[in-house]
Amino acid sequence: MQNRLISPIRVVVAEDDSAYRELLCEQLRLTPDLDVIGEAQDGREAVAAVGRLKPDVLTLDLDLPGMNGLDVLYVTRWCSPDTKVIIISGRDEESIIQEALRQGAKGYVVKGDGTDLKKTIRVVHDGEVWARRQVLTAIIAEMGNAGQPAPPYDGG
Predict the structure, then answer these.
(1) Rounded CA separation 7/5 (Å)
(2) Cα 68 to the chain's mean position, in Å?
(3) Residue 11 and residue 28 in contact, taking contact as beta carbons nearer than 8 Å
(4) Distance (Å, whole) CA 32 – CA 83
(5) Is 107 in contact with 130 (CB distance < 8 Å)?
């Protein structure tokens, strides 16, 4: 049986903290099946990199200067619809995570929570969604309730 070469997953990293961005890129570059093809330190650079490079995956900080992460996510979905976006943020409020996923993010990782980002990138690239279980449970429950009839009006 022949071995088939698999193309590495092409990643753009958008992070304003230069030390964190460099560490993240270094870790990803040490992984043979991941290829960091671009970096951005603000929202405008992120949009330009995605538009120019059309990565498979964009890792995106929510709190970027120049253009916030949700706006970058919106533009990415328009200019590079095949690019999957993983939010990597220090913000861990469930409402923010849910909003990012509703806006089209395919993953959400809280900085410093011990998540294996390489695994997250692979999982999202393969078409799955990555977030905390309780967040996914809440979104699924919300979707299930969307088709439910309103409770009867009691006249009060």
Answers:
(1) 6
(2) 13
(3) yes
(4) 20
(5) yes
Domain locations in the chain?
Answer: 9-144
How many CB atoms are located within 10 Å of the residue 77 CB? 16
The pair of structure tokens assigned to 41 is 């330190």
* Residue bearing tokens 């929570």: 113
Contact predicate 38/53, CB 8 Å: yes
pLDDT digits (tens, 9 = 90+) for 61-88: 999 999 999 999 999 999 999 999 999 9
Query: What average pLDDT does range 94-98 have in this prediction?
Result: 87
Distance CA 149, CA 20 (A): 47
Cα atoms in the 13 Å half-sphere on the side-chain side of 37: 18
**In whole angstroms, how large is the CA radius of gyration of the chain?**
18
Indicate the CATH number for domain 9-144. Answer: 3.40.50.2300
**Strand partners for 34:** 9
Q: Identify the residue whose tokens are 């078409």.
A: 127
CA dist 36 → 2, 109, 149 (Å): 28, 18, 48
pTM above 0.90, yes or no: no
Sheet containing 107-110: give its strands across.
Answer: 34-40, 9-14, 57-60, 84-89, 107-110
